[in-house]
Design brief:
The protein is of the alpha/beta class. The chain contains 27 helices and eleven strands. The chain has a seven-stranded mixed beta sheet, with helices on both faces. A two-stranded antiparallel ribbon has the order 7-9. The chain has a two-stranded antiparallel sheet with strand order 10-11. The longest helix is centred in the middle third of the chain and has 42 residues. The N and C termini lie far apart (65 Å).
């Protein structure tokens, strides 16, 4: 079977999906469009069936590109994703509004199961539903109560799916219903009026309402969390705490992973027979992969906290309070979701702008979204912060390194808002944007859902980044190992003569030879060519190479440096990457990585548009190369000027 999971936003649809599929879920695109779909597998009666979690929508008639997918699939029985069975998830405490979408799907004669989710919240709000009577208004539909966050109702839902009869619906809820065309606004309005009239009568007969004991408590909490002053202070404090935790608690596992990969690289070099394959493993593949794996603890912690904020309902409050800041800048609260999504990755952030109906607001959001520091920048930030920022306490309890990380994220956000304000004046549009937002009830986080989110994000980060880094590490190793033979041989002979004249030890001689060969390899020639352009920023040619390769993905910067320094170093040297970077010297003996050059690099990565995939998605979403070219131009200028000023001031 193909099972569709449908429902309004904030009904716990994702919790139902997680409850049914567990770890057996993936993310892909609907055919022909860039809209994400989550799909997974469930086993019923020994057979596997597919289930698709569709974008949340209030009606079959779309107001955004995400909602358009639901219409396109359900209005076309020949669509590849057209379901055999639909599970419609509704919030039991908001039955009247939620039944609108369910009744539309029911009237399409699709075999449907109605899930009354959040039953626990409905009880707390003093609501009870006469399920048997409600089923009488929708013949052929089974209605099941669930509290999906804690797994209540899973067995009943699975049992009903297993024995679902695909031919039980004979008549619809709204007489003689036909799906309106998208341009038939009058027909949609008439249907909405008729449908709501029927729904109100049904709800009045099946729902009993007593006192709402939790409503007052929630309102009191909202008075604080969405306060025009305290709301921002609390949000900033929460972010500060998150970054403190990321640095304080991730240090131990990161040191362990770093040491493990260094030892593995050294062990491979000493154990395997000398040769090209041994060098490829110990100097290319292992350091490159280790440069990504080391940041799993910090990535996991970041998504752990973000998932908790979303699970509790607080993230929706952030969207609400940020609307006050967004409105004067040509954006609205809906822009916050793409911007917050971009803190994980700019690609889903750009794609999330499809919920913004206003063209101008959507375009501005797309252009500034990559300025939000994504998770791919964390490896760069944390490496450089650990390298040039002292591990000290501020005010006796705040970690200085955590404060710097918070500052980098804040700088990206503030710059995005300032650029948005500038674009508001430059981009003309007569449309007026609006914010439609539903604030969900406060809930304690469901740790199973939090764990699934963390697992999925870490898995995608490691696999997607790992593929790119593995390929680039091999290419970099080859470019750093080979070069014009006569040039490399001459450089090696010159290094040997210099070592003999200076009476250097064998270890120093080998290090000089390796450095000479690296500078005259293909990657050295390329790096030396771009060095004059980046020298004013405090960078040498090795950093320049890493800047170029990280255009594939920002986190490749770390893997590239790991490969370059591994090729340059002694094969028996098991130094960590950060130690190699601390020991790196310029030709005049000055250290390459100082507070000035390190801070300059951090600023560069805050502003630079260094992700090919993001550019491709921007082009696909705007259907033009005009906007991605404008984007890479203004972000490139920002990055260069910002880095230059930073290096000049701190030098």
């Amino acid at each position: 079977m193909k099972i569709a999971l449908l429902g309004n936003p904030n009904t716990g649809k994702s919790s139902v999906f997680n409850m049914l599929t567990g770890l057996r879920q993936h993310v892909g695109n609907f055919p022909g469009v860039t809209v994400d779909k989550k799909f997974g597998n469930i086993t019923l009666g020994g057979e596997d069936h597919s289930i698709i979690d569709f974008p949340g929508t209030y009606s079959l008639y779309p107001r955004s590109k995400d909602e358009q997918v639901v219409y396109d699939v359900l209005s076309n029985p020949n669509h590849i994703d057209f379901p055999d069975v639909a599970i419609v998830v509704v919030d039991e405490s908001n039955l009247e509004r939620n039944l609108f979408l369910f009744s539309q799907i029911y009237d399409l004669k699709i075999p449907t199961i109605l899930v009354l989710n959040m039953a626990d919240i409905a009880r707390k709000n003093g609501k009870t539903i006469d399920i048997a009577r409600l089923e009488g208004f929708f013949p052929g539909t089974k209605i099941i109560e669930t509290t999906a966050r804690i797994g209540v109702g899973k067995d009943r839902l699975m049992k009903e799916l297993q024995f679902k009869d695909p031919s039980t619906i004979e008549q619809g809820f709204l007489p003689n219903y036909k799906l309106c065309k998208l341009d038939d606004q009058q027909g949609q309005e008439q249907e909405a009026n008729d449908r709501f009239e029927l729904i109100k009568k049904v709800v009045s007969l099946v729902e009993q309402q007593v006192e709402k004991p939790t409503a007052k408590q929630q309102n009191n909490l909202d008075k604080i969390l969405v306060h025009p002053i305290f709301g921002y202070v609390i949000f900033a404090a929460i972010l500060m705490i998150i970054f403190q935790f990321i640095f304080s608690f991730a240090a131990i596992p990161m040191d362990f992973i770093d040491g493990t990969f260094s030892d593995l690289s050294s062990w491979l070099s000493n154990t395997l027979p000398p040769g090209m394959f041994s060098d490829l493993l110990s100097q290319g593949i292992v350091p490159g992969i280790g440069g990504v794996v080391i940041f799993i603890p910090q990535i996991a912690l970041l998504f752990f906290f973000i998932s908790i904020l979303e699970e509790t309902g607080y993230l929706a409050r952030v969207v609400f309070i940020m609307d006050r800041l967004m409105r004067p800048l040509g954006l609205n609260g809906k822009s916050v979701v793409p911007l917050l999504s971009s803190a994980a990755c700019a690609i889903p952030g750009v794609m999330a702008t499809r919920t913004i109906s206003d063209w101008k607001e959507r375009t501005i959001t797309i252009l500034v979204a990559p300025l939000m520091s994504c998770s791919a920048r964390i490896p760069v930030y944390t490496l450089l912060i650990a390298l040039v920022i002292p591990n000290e306490k501020v005010l006796g309890f705040l970690n200085l390194q955590g404060l710097v990380l918070f500052g980098l994220y804040s700088l990206g956000l503030v710059t995005a808002l300032l650029i948005a304000a500038l674009l508001k004046m430059l981009i003309r549009s007569k449309e007026k944007g609006y914010l439609l937002l539903e604030l969900p009830s406060y809930k304690s986080p469901r740790w199973g859902n939090v764990g699934l989110t963390v697992w999925e994000k870490v898995r995608v980060f490691v696999l997607d980044a790992g593929k790119i880094i593995l390929a680039i590490s091999v290419i970099l190793w080859a470019m750093a190992t080979f070069g014009p033979s006569d040039r490399m041989d001459k450089a090696e002979q010159k290094a040997k003569v210099h070592a003999w004249e200076q009476h250097l030890s064998a270890e120093e001689t080998n290090s000089n030879i390796a450095s000479a060969r690296l500078e005259n390899s293909y990657i050295g020639i390329l790096g030396k060519g771009i060095e004059p352009v980046i020298a004013p920023l405090g960078y040498d040619w090795k950093i320049g190479i890493s800047l170029i390769t990280s255009f594939a993905a920002r986190e490749v910067f770390v893997g590239s440096l790991a490969t370059i320094y591994a090729v340059q170093g002694d094969s028996d040297d098991n130094k960590r990457l950060i130690d190699r970077m601390r020991d790196e010297k310029r030709s005049d003996g000055r250290p390459v990585y100082t507070l000035a050059s390190g801070a300059s690099l951090m600023i560069f990565y805050v502003f630079a548009m260094q992700c090919m995939a993001t550019l491709a998605v921007v082009k696909r979403e705007t259907k033009s190369w005009k906007w991605p070219l404008i984007q890479i131009a203004f972000m490139g200028v920002l990055a260069y000027i910002g880095s230059f000023i930073t290096y000049y001031i701190l030098s």
